[in-house]
Amino acid sequence: MRASHPILLAALSAVCLPAGARADRTDRALNDKMPAVVKYLQEKGFENVGVLRFRVGVGKKAARFDNVPFNGNLPGRVENLLIMHGGDGEPAVGVIRGAGGTAAANEVGDWFGDERQRKKLFDVEYRLAWGGKKVKADAFLTGVVRVSEDVKKTTVTLLCFDKGDLELKKIAQFTIETDRDVIRDLGYSFAVGQKARESMVTKRSAADMDRAVLDALENELKPSDVAGVAVTVLVDDKPTSLQAAKGDEEGPRWKLECPPPGKAVAVRLKNTTEARMGVVVKLNGLSLFEQQTRAADRCRKWVIKPGKTITLEGFYAPQGQRLALRRFEVLVGDEAKAMKEQLGDRAGLLEIDVFAEGAESDEELEISARGLPPSKDKEKEKEAKAESYKAVRASLLKDARLKTETTVNKRLIIVADKEAIKADKFRTVDFEGHNVGRLAVRVVPRE
Question: Rounded distance, CA 13 to CA 272, Å?
Fold first, then answer.
């Protein structure tokens, strides 16, 4: 099963960022608050600090720990900003990487609701974000995200507790206008209407684009029309249905029953419009091109010509004039469990972001606390044990463009196969676009 024509990839600038990439408002606001947060931690005398999951709630619904991507990606973003604001010399505070996962692996239970479990957090040894040293935490940060009933405002509150005082205390808070990035972090799907998309060929402001996306939340979305791109998941070359979630749950509203092991899985994308469309596909938080972890608008895109179809069979990476392909593989049992522990909240999330051509008129300084440069995330993770604080901080600052003042058995998961094969030829093309559609699908265990 091959794409019927060479695959096109959007060409990027020299620093691997699309022209006009906009700032993430959440990261920008977190960045503004971080000097005061670091000062608070220093004044309290905390040497090593971890960041735990955030609760998220929309409207009058209770804030929960397990409903949307925001829950799991905010801790890493706060960790990164603590490092970035740690100063040029010795770090202002030791930053623990992935405290929540380590605590869970050490059988710490409901730390939020049970004070005894909260105490247990301070008995666990955690790994610092640099140097490989293991330490015990002096304090933990967590927080809550509250989105207004009309989804137009988003408030983030940072909380802190320590071994001597287990009560959660508010140390920072901000409210922003909800933007496209928040909508994606909520796990929502959306499709901007055709007339709105056509008007986006000319330059539009970032605020215009955010309003268009918020308005699009009211539109009915079907996988067969994600803002002009038809999405089909294939299992052994046969289409499999995506099911709309039932009930009033938050997060991704579409579900895909995980295929059985040994089956060939692919994602087919058809451009149903008369213009080129760009698409970013992620599985388990990793783009199908080079396994990039950036926000979708910062990833390289598959560019599909009008009326054309491409079929993606796994994860791709350049290898000469061709793409090396690692096909999707369904893991089960203990192997799947281990991979889920490694991936965390990203596990089982299929994301398709659709982009129509057009430029934004008001470019802002880009700030992103989400990750490291494309293609380097995995190698950086491996090198982190031996890297110094200064090296980790410099890498994060460079990527953020930021300057600081100081299954079977319910265990099933789809990952990249270990073996790579040669796929189709490809070439890069210029493409600058707006995020006009998104389909978020949760891959769930088979009944």
Answer: 28
Reported as a single tens digit per residue, the pLDDT across 412-436 is 666 666 666 666 667 777 788 888 8
Q: Rg (Cα) of the chain, in Å, rounded?
A: 21
Per the structure, the complete domain to which residue 218 belongs is given by 7-23+181-366+407-444
Boundary of a domain, candidates 153, 178, 203? 178
Same domain as 345, residue 304: yes
Regarding whether 67 and 210 lie in a shared domain, the answer is no
- Look up the CATH number of the domain holding residue 149: 3.40.50.10610
Residues 6+ apart with CB under 8 A from 317: 289, 290, 291, 323, 324, 326, 375, 420
Between 447 and 8, whose confidence is greater?
Answer: 447
Together in a domain, 266 and 350: yes
Separation of alpha carbons 217 and 230, rounded Å: 18
Q: What is the pLDDT of residues 339-370, one digit of tens each?
A: 666 666 677 889 999 998 876 655 454 556 77
Q: pTM of this prediction?
A: 0.80
Residues 88 and 139 in one domain: yes
Q: What's the CA gap between 82 and 94, in Å, rounded?
A: 9
The structure tokens listed for 205 are 């402001």
- Which residue, of 120, 153, 178, is where some domain finishes? 178
Sign of CA dihedral 172, 175, 180, 184: positive
Q: What is the DSSP string of 27-52?
A: HHHHHHHHHHHHHHHHHTT--EEEEE
